[in-house]
Amino acid sequence: MNVLEIRGLVKSFTLHTIDGRTVGALHGVDLDVAAGEHVALAGSSGAGKSSLLRCVYRTYVPTSGRVLLRTSSGAVVDLAALPDAQVADLRGRELGYVSQFLRAEPRRAVLDVVARAGVARGMDPDAARDAAAGALRRLGIDERLWAMHTTVLSGGQKQRVNLAAGTISPPRLLLLDEPVSALDPVNREAVLSMIADLTGAGVAVLSVFHDLDAIERLATRVVVLEGGRVAAEGAPGAVLRDSRLNLEVAR
Ligand SMILES: Nc1ncnc2c1ncn2[C@@H]1O[C@H](COP(=O)(O)OP(=O)(O)OP(=O)(O)O)[C@@H](O)[C@H]1O
Predict the structure, then answer these.
(1) Is the CB of 179 within 6 Å of ligand 1?
(2) Max alpha carbon distance in the chain (Å)?
(3) pLDDT of 14-65, one tens digit each?
(4) What is the pTM of this model?
(5) Nearest CA to ligand 1 atom 24
(6) How far is the CA of 228 from the centre of ligand 1 (A)?
(7) What is the value of ipTM here, to two decimals?
(8) Distance CA 170, CA 182 (A)
(9) Within a 10 A sphere around the Cβ of 95, how many other Cβ atoms?
(10) Which domains, and CATH codes, for the chain?
(11) Residue 250: CB within 6 Å of ligand 1?
């Protein structure tokens, strides 16, 4: 059963500061992600990978097309057309989005940031704190940092706090935009194995990694975007080794 079905997704931007011209990022993308499937987006810089993730999370409002999410209750909602308040509610309950940047209130403690994500997913506050502690421990965030404000963290620590918050309880659909870009090998390994476990537990994952090794290890399918269109898709090994596609995913 598909958790996500994208049909005819178009996203263009009007550049008001540059004579109002329009830039197209996505030109009619169709894409499905099933429960327990990890679909990695590949393609050269500017191909539309991040824009696609942002349209699904609704950071960007799609220009046209449908972004259908089958929620845990079985209902199907079109994220492209949903009012903002309902999108905010779904983000708390069903969607996890982890980018390389931590978006958190600067004066909030690390443990609190992660626990609040759990409460937004419907956990009671005590359970959320326990789950937050477990997630931070698993991702190698030293307990001495838990009471500190997120602003004092290094880039790699922020990235792991972000992951802990995005995955405190398994979301139905996890969106990952370069989640390991700032990590050293040991922490990268911890994050990759956590993502693999989530897929194993039935989470649908749609990701962007600029790291071929991570894609080969984690993805069940690769979708290659070129110029805002799907250029190829298939099993990671076959797609990534196809030199004709001139992939520039490893930069
Ligand atoms: N907020 C925006 N305003 C204007 N144009 C944008 C915006 N976001 C993306 N674009 C344009 O959309 C196109 C696709 O960009 P996008 O960031 O989705 O590509 P990408 O495949 O993720 O690239 P990269 O691998 O370099 O991150 C580019 O031409 C980009 O300039």
Answers:
(1) no
(2) 53
(3) 887 777 788 899 999 999 999 999 999 999 999 999 999 999 999 999 999 9
(4) 0.91
(5) 45
(6) 9
(7) 0.96
(8) 23
(9) 21
(10) 1-92+211-251 (3.40.50.300)
(11) no
